[in-house]
Amino acid sequence: MAQIVVVFDFDKTIIELDSDNWVVDELGATDLFNELLPTMPWNLLMDRMMKELHAQGKTIEEIKDVLRRAPIHPRIVPAIKKAHALGCDLRILSDANMFFIETIIDHLGIKNCFSEINTNPSYVDNEGRLRISPYVDFQSSPHGCNRCPPNMCKGMIIERIQASLAKEGKKRMIYLGDGIGDFCPSLKLGEADFMMPRKDFPVWDLICENRALLRAEIHEWTDGDEMEVTLLKLIEKIKIQENNNSNSVQLLSVDCKFETISMAAHEALPPPLRVHQ
Ligand SMILES: [Mg+2]
Ligand SMILES: [Zn+2]
Predict the structure, then answer these.
(1) Domain span at residue 184?
(2) Does residue 252 fall inside a structural domain?
(3) pLDDT at residue 271 greater than cutoff 60
(4) CB distance 236 to 230 below 8 Å
(5) Which of 59, 140, 173, 260 is deepest in the core (most CB within 10 A)?
(6) Distance 37 CA to ligand 1 centre (A)
């Protein structure tokens, strides 16, 4: 069972831009989108835009083609594949929608790297129109978090994941994101977890302004190169710490100097110590 859970935001974290904007812009509907944006929540607007595009004769295949062309930094896919190969449990937590995300990760050949995708539901109806609905039905049961958009509180989803992980034994979490919606989940991370905010993006600014509210260790990244290096280093660091901890339990039982030995072990990576009583 994987000890490390890595949670990725999708837009501007895995792919280089926002998939909603990318589809709207590439299919020539930017003006209508901007006109309607002040009048309704983003998530409902995307469903509406799919209706408009369908009425204009745009097909699901055309939308898929646009999604498959979404720009991505060349190191992101290798980073995800390596993290998966190292035994991490990878998940996506996104305010985009299932159709966009699945189309893209399928195309990139990384769909099987993820154990879970938490996002707004979507499906193609009988007319061939893509329908997008909110993750949370905010009319009947609002989530009540004032930091997050009405259709999704990522913090609550992280809490649900944490609760289910607690049943499986100890887990450490690494969270990667860029947007305002990634701030709420960063507050739910514990001190053994890691937050990887994209530097100079909205979540980074919020974290800088509210540094004391976070318990997790913070490691920023700017692009795919840095994301890959930082993510793999953190995975390695956790694996070393977990190894040392299992050694330290034995050491503690004979009252050794836990801190000193644990630190030294971290530097030199000795083989497991056997303590005979
Ligand atoms: Mg994002
Ligand atoms: Zn929230």
Answers:
(1) 4-17+73-121+138-233
(2) no
(3) no
(4) no
(5) 173
(6) 18
- Entry pTM: 0.88
Residue 262: pLDDT band (50, 70, 90) is: very low
Based on the residue annotation, tell me whether 89 is a catalytic residue of this protein.
Answer: no
Question: Residue 9 catalytic?
Answer: yes
Angle between helices 19-26 and 98-108 (to 10 degrees): 90
pLDDT tens for each residue of 27-55: 999 999 999 999 999 999 999 999 999 99
Rounded-to-integer distance, Cα 264 and Cα 260, Å: 6
How many domains does the chain divide into? 1
Phi-psi region of 269 (alpha: psi -120 to 50; beta: other; left: phi over 0): left
Separation of CA 206 and ligand 2 centre (Å) = 14
Average the pLDDT over 93-118 and give the result.
98
Of the ranges 42-56, 160-174, 189-203, 227-241, which one carries the lowest mean pLDDT score?
160-174
Asked whether residue 45 is domain-assigned, the answer is no
Burial status of residue 204 (CB atoms within 10 A of its CB: 0-12, 13-18, 19 or more): buried
